[in-house]
Design brief:
Blueprint: H1 9-13, H2 17-39, H3 42-47, H4 60-72, H5 82-102, H6 108-118, H7 123-141, H8 168-184, H9 192-206, H10 217-244, H11 252-270, H12 293-305, H13 315-331, H14 334-342, H15 345-355, H16 359-376, H17 385-404, H18 408-424, H19 426-430, H20 434-451, H21 455-468
């Protein structure tokens, strides 16, 4: 792979038929070894890695020089052991793959496969490379005022390893790497030293305003895709922790981490106070595998943002946190949904929604309620008093919003909850008293329809009225 020809500006500038054919041949030639790597089990990568894959600052310039040196260096065979040779080969492979990921002239298909191959290495060895590039991207997108940038510090990566720049495309690949690792690696999500800095970095990217005014539509679309990947990445970690605490003789540590992470995300959504970090923790504290996840996350967040993240967060972050829970629900198995129900997660969302006065947050919370009811409707029994009370709380909170709201997002979210109650839980609707039905039909659906919040809202309200009151 080190000696392969690479795409160059000369190839791109030549529009001749022979150049096009040569470019196609080059693409397949560069894909071939990566497709072979794809077939190699993850364990092989881990067994042959050295203690460190990185040399320090792993920017494109270093990667080019390293690969060139390895390719044209001394050919004499050393007396090192086979294991040392394998470790050296792993380090060489890492640099070749990393170069493909960050090289702006590389084929996008090669970039994707190279990223997937990097995800097979032990994550604790590759993560500093990934986080350093994401941190460079973050600092480009949200620079500090003059003079403040020099004072900027981070506990996420070692000082001096952050590249000078990182573009949107490379940042997307780094987030793609994180999603692959947490979805496929059986141990990455268990290690706080891996999960905490990853979540913190993904959260920081979610703070970047979606519409900054200066970027093109294409760049804005790339940023939205990047942030969607960040949301899915956090959701994947949340889900893997929840699943890890459900196995036979389930890991109590993983269950506690899953619960504390869910509670922290809910705190951020609804602006509930969260505990700060003790002053005696030390500013140079590092996160380790067995440490409390939330404590480590909060410590890293404070070091990065300079605040406690316990005060009122920007609305964009709070909506993104709603989307994290939505993503986790959409991926979850029934066992996880049952755990969240028994742990009171949905009850807490319902209660917080009832007392929330911010329409955007209410709309996000209603979407969470809808998604949970839709996904878990087959597991809810109206003969069970706890299930019945949970659904009743959903009904009361939703109808209360329908009676007065003039916000389209809140109205649509509320109507979707009513729709899932009518369509998926008809046994609950059949249990409603005449007073409850009158409240739902006359004071909520009819009133909302006639309020003309929007044509879409009025049409959906009318459809639900027809479903509840057939001719």
């Amino acid at each position: 792979m080190m000696s392969q020809q690479r795409l160059s500006e000369e190839f791109l500038d030549d529009n001749s038929a022979s150049s096009v054919a040569a470019t196609e041949g080059l693409l397949f030639a560069r894909l071939a070894p990566l497709l072979v790597l794809r077939l190699i089990p993850r364990q092989i990568f881990g067994d042959n890695c050295a203690q460190a894959l990185l040399c320090g600052l792993e920017d494109l310039d270093h990667l080019e020089k390293y690969v060139h040196l390895q390719q044209h260096g001394s050919k004499e065979r050393s007396e090192s052991s086979l294991r040392d040779e394998m470790a050296t080969s792993a380090k060489q492979l890492f640099h070749v793959l990393a170069r493909s990921v960050v090289d702006p002239l590389e084929f996008k298909e090669v970039k994707m496969l190279a990223t997937e191959s990097l995800a097979k290495f032990p994550p604790q060895l590759v993560l500093p490379f990934v986080l350093a590039h994401l941190l460079a991207f973050l600092r480009e997108m949200m620079p500090l005022a003059n003079g403040e940038e020099q004072k900027r510090t981070t506990l996420i990566v070692t000082k001096g390893t952050i590249p000078a720049s990182c573009g949107l495309v490379t940042a997307k690949l780094m987030v793609y790497y994180l999603n692959r690792v947490f979805a496929e690696d059986m141990n990455a999500f268990k290690d706080t030293g891996v999960t905490a800095p990853a979540i913190v970095m993904l959260l920081q990217i979610l703070k970047i305003p979606c519409a900054q005014g200066s970027e093109s539509k294409a760049e804005e679309s790339l940023l939205i895709d990047l942030q969607r990947g960040c949301i899915d990445g956090i959701a994947e970690i949340m889900l893997r922790l929840a699943e890890g605490g459900l196995v036979q003789d389930g890991n109590k540590v993983l269950r506690a981490r899953a619960s504390s992470l869910m509670n922290l995300v809910l705190n951020w959504i609804f602006c509930d106070p969260t505990p700060g970090i003790d002053d005696d923790k030390g500013t140079d504290k590092q996160c380790h595998g067995e440490e409390d996840l939330v404590t480590c996350m909060q410590h890293l967040l404070e070091s990065e943002s300079g605040d406690t993240w316990s005060s009122k967060l920007p609305m964009q972050i709070r909506i993104c946190c709603c989307n994290v829970i939505l993503s986790a629900i959409s991926r979850s198995e029934n066992s996880v949904l049952l755990r969240w129900k028994s742990d009171g997660v949905i009850s807490r969302v319902i209660l917080a929604t009832e007392h929330c006065s911010e329409d955007d947050v209410v709309a996000g919370a209603l979407q969470i309620i809808f998604s949970f009811l839709y996904k878990s409707s087959d597991m809810l029994s109206m003969e069970d008093s706890c299930d019945r009370q949970l659904v009743r709380s959903c009904f009361d909170t939703t109808v209360a919003r329908l009676e007065f709201t003039r916000n389209e997002k809140v109205a649509m979210g509320s109507l979707k909850v009513v729709g899932v109650l009518v369509g998926k839980l008809p046994s609950f609707v059949s249990m409603l008293s005449q007073a409850d039905l009158a409240r739902l039909i006359d004071r909520s659906l009819v009133s909302l329809r006639d309020r003309q919040v929007s044509s879409a809202v009025s049409e959906l309200a009318q459809s639900l009225l027809q479903a509840i009151t057939p001719p």
